Amino acid sequence: MHRAIATVCLSGTLEDKLNAAAAAGFNGVEIFENDFIAAPWSAERVRRHCAGLGLSIDLYQPFRDFEGAEPDSMRRNLRRAERKFELMERLGVDTILVCSSVAPDTVDDDDLAAEQLHTLAEHAARRGMRIAYEALAWGRFVNTWEHSWDIVRRGDHPALGLCVDSFHVLSRADNGNGKTDPAGIATVPGEKLFFLQLADAPRLDMDVLQWSRHHRLFPGQGSFDLATFTTAVLATGYRGPLSLEVFNDVFRQSAPDRAAVDAMRSLIALEEALGRQPEVRQRERIELARPAPAPELSGFAFTELAVDADSGPRLARALAAMGFAHIGEHRSKPVQLWQLGDARILLNSGGEQATAVSAIAVETADPAASARRAEALLAPALPRARGPAEADLTAVAAPDGTEIFFCRTGAEGTGWLSDFILTGTASDAPTAVTHIDHVALAQPFDYFDEATLFYRAVLGLDPRHDSEFAAPFGLVRGRAVTEPAGRVRIALHGTVLRRGDWAPGVPDPQHLAMATGDIFASARAMRARGAPLLSIPDNYYDDLGARLELDPEVLAAMRECQVLYDRDGVGEYYHFHTEVFGDRIFLEIVQRAGGYSGYGAVNAPVRMTAHRAVRSPTGEASRRLPSEGQAP
Amino acid sequence: MHRAIATVCLSGTLEDKLNAAAAAGFNGVEIFENDFIAAPWSAERVRRHCAGLGLSIDLYQPFRDFEGAEPDSMRRNLRRAERKFELMERLGVDTILVCSSVAPDTVDDDDLAAEQLHTLAEHAARRGMRIAYEALAWGRFVNTWEHSWDIVRRGDHPALGLCVDSFHVLSRADNGNGKTDPAGIATVPGEKLFFLQLADAPRLDMDVLQWSRHHRLFPGQGSFDLATFTTAVLATGYRGPLSLEVFNDVFRQSAPDRAAVDAMRSLIALEEALGRQPEVRQRERIELARPAPAPELSGFAFTELAVDADSGPRLARALAAMGFAHIGEHRSKPVQLWQLGDARILLNSGGEQATAVSAIAVETADPAASARRAEALLAPALPRARGPAEADLTAVAAPDGTEIFFCRTGAEGTGWLSDFILTGTASDAPTAVTHIDHVALAQPFDYFDEATLFYRAVLGLDPRHDSEFAAPFGLVRGRAVTEPAGRVRIALHGTVLRRGDWAPGVPDPQHLAMATGDIFASARAMRARGAPLLSIPDNYYDDLGARLELDPEVLAAMRECQVLYDRDGVGEYYHFHTEVFGDRIFLEIVQRAGGYSGYGAVNAPVRMTAHRAVRSPTGEASRRLPSEGQAP
What we know:
The structure is a homodimer. By secondary structure, chain A is α/β, with parallel strands linked by helices. Chain A has two domains: 3-281, Divalent-metal-dependent TIM barrel enzymes (TIM Barrel, Alpha-Beta Barrel); 297-615, 2,3-Dihydroxybiphenyl 1,2-Dioxygenase, domain 1 (Roll), CATH 3.10.180.10. In chain A, 32% of the residues lie in helices and 25% in strands. In chain A, strands 1-2-3-4-5-6-7-8 form an eight-stranded parallel β-barrel, surrounded by seven helices. In chain A, strands 14-15-13-9-12-11-10-16 form an eight-stranded mixed beta sheet. Chain A has an eight-stranded mixed beta sheet with strand order 18-19-20-17-21-24-23-22, with helices on both faces. Chain A is elongated and about 85 Å long.
């Protein structure tokens, strides 16, 4: 389909926005009036620039407070419209968005509104232009698509049609602010549907205008069902642009080239979802993006940690104390392979990077298909330096820069393991660890929503477990993306507000969590082997005992083993942590019981404070458990 | 009065919070349970630490979901309470906050709630403790202070009383969510009012729980009338702590020592406001802070710009082109004095600072009283290097680091002008400029609300003209603080979200605006003299012509002179700008007509884009007006 984006979605000058849209592969743009007004370029130059970039100008917007006006206002409104039509001629755009009036002096008279829009359409038609009338969710009188359609019908002019915007429609359907039926859009004749604007949004209980102006998202980043909505629109016969109109405070200040790619990815994923709708599949002549389906993911092949001269040996000692065996060395790079159960960790001391999770490798049923899909969804491919006899690992960059590898560990010949000279074998899991449960990645402030869409679209993971909690140094937002069966879990977290210089612990820690079948056995064994485990304050266990009627023996074991605890309606979560290596890496051991599928977010502030206490010059280190290099 | 602060107001570990509260001069704290649970210190150690800092522990909070419980839950709730009472004994705190239940299984039965709270009070009384029951604005059934008071009355136990929190009371009074009458609190017997929590907030149309958890402010930073509220509380005979409980996403991640000073300033200012309430003044035995009243301010004495080797000469040439005369040199520092009409600008090339507004000097009726007031309100005093025969200028630091001087230009002997050797005289204002209209200061992200309170409390300025607009590189928030007659106006602005590395124009520009009586004469004269004025796109004037039915001659003059325009119900605003000097300084010339008291915020995005176009490598400089060093 024709993919467009409103310039208001992106940051920068009009030139920045147009260039970014074109670079991301958009076919057209909506020119947001304020962007044009502030631009140093004439309409003719904007037109030439767009043409040179291969961008059509699909819409000029918005034209406000037109209909339902008293006669004197109407005269002024028509004069204002004529000026804008002249400008549109110069720009080479034939459709203008007229949004329903919010002016306090608007007259509540549908016949008058219809008549005035008819007049406006008549003026537009003389220049070969069209009026796309849109109900704002907060319009003074017209605030549902049904109402705007009724007025368009009464206005009865070939140059008068409807613009539907998923936010305005679904925000009202969603919050019960007004009776509206998105599915009913399918009954509008296609030739009367002039324009389609798409935006997603998180569910928020707030003033709808503020919700719209600050919190819209690209499709797939929020809670709206845009595939169903768009299917209803396509059922009318509408074949115009799929055009994004997203007002978002973060995107407004993010790098526009990057936001434009994020936006394009959202449309490709939406088109793919449309292709799965039976109503759409039966229709001819709808060109939709059809990326390769996401192959099944069955777990983590490995996780790679970049380490430096200090953290590398410390991490190696910690892994050994946790029961990992150092079983291999990379053929051409300074990379160690450690294994325990099915958990494999690479320690890479070859880069310039500070200690961090540098790569995640997922086990995929079809690495090549995973790579093709990633490419189709605009994931940046990473070049790999490759030695002889080394596997051609395909990797893409996640929004936070983490490398994502697609692997099939068992595959003959091409397996990634053949890159390693095996020098040992994994032990018998003396500490009960079985596999990697999840990887937790701190997201840069600007890319949290981009990351959600990336993992959802590129890897086929589902966003779950949204959380927000008051950490000791500021509010933190969390979200997990998981393979449906929970075999690949990535926990994303980031600050709700970008932090200032004062904040300690920047960059935010990342961690690797390993699953165990017996949390207390793991803790005791690791402690006995000298693992540098994090100690938790007694206050935490006193509160746990006050809040929950736990078995006193279990509570005592938790206190002894410094295990944190959470439960929900379906299960329980036990977890403990190591100290931090380098600036930001720690390890976690978790045990899930019942159907618990969360990440113990409720305990994160306690864990963060405990990490801080260990690292702070004023923190008490006396209660620390025996640490590396010490006998237990 | 006894001034307290809840630990939840501040960022950091419990230790950070306690130390910051004590350093700012608080008498006591509320221990927020989560802060204690995460702390490595035992209750006894926290108690000792507080005692050592001179802090009483006034409240332990919160205890949730107690009343209206089924029998089995009640058994567990009492067990939970006993555990907390034990902890409170160890901490040495005798009052616990019990907030109204939000649990979905709460029973709607006031008699039951009263009976259960009576039982809880009985348990507390055995240990000499008290229950302060508070209605959360979003409580399941109890969500007004009246309802909580009714239950406390029915509960009828000497150890059962009320906690009132200004947010929970005023948020409901303000948004019409429920019938409540803050003034009625005055009828509660003082001995039943166990605790007072204070928070301000901006008016926001959103879910009250989210409003409370993220957007509370210290008194004087928001829209609530806390003086009237607190007066009603004091009328009961309540003489307990004035205790701040503010949940704010920005404060949660700001430096705690600084936030604690901001908090203390808010209480001092509130006490001063209480002292002006007739009902309070008539009462004996209320100790209130009484800082010296703010002396009248009558304008700007001068504004000092820090300049570097490049921007200094450019600014000097620009000032000359704008009609300023270089009339003096500082006796001991590399500071030039420039004057035009009553506008005086110092160019200080002696510091390490990048080009910026470094100081503002206000004309005060009593510099010494202004300084005493600033000190009483915790404004950081700045040491001054002083040469012989130099005036002892008193200066304090504003939250953004700008120095604020208190001056009386006409004063005999001690006037700041005597620090300068006068080498010339001001010209006859050939460019019609009369005085400094306002100074616009970019506020660091974390200190916007602190700045509001600082200027309001320290200088006696009123916050006005809140604005929020989509600038080309992100959302910007604005607020002015002004002397009632408009003789001192400071326009504060800052980004709504802290910007990332991508954003251009960081640090955000500041500017100095000079008033003229004839905007077009000023523009033409300055242009003729070669001032480096900023050019505005034609698109802006085309839109102005479309939107407003302006006199074509006036519109033509605006276009010719690159003057921007705004109007409101009472007046008009004309303004034009210079280019940027150094990284962040520009000058503005403004003309106000009628009662217009704003700052043309509607035009800021256009101005910002124009500045960007001049500075950007891809921007068009061809339409720039004749610049410095060029003949017109």
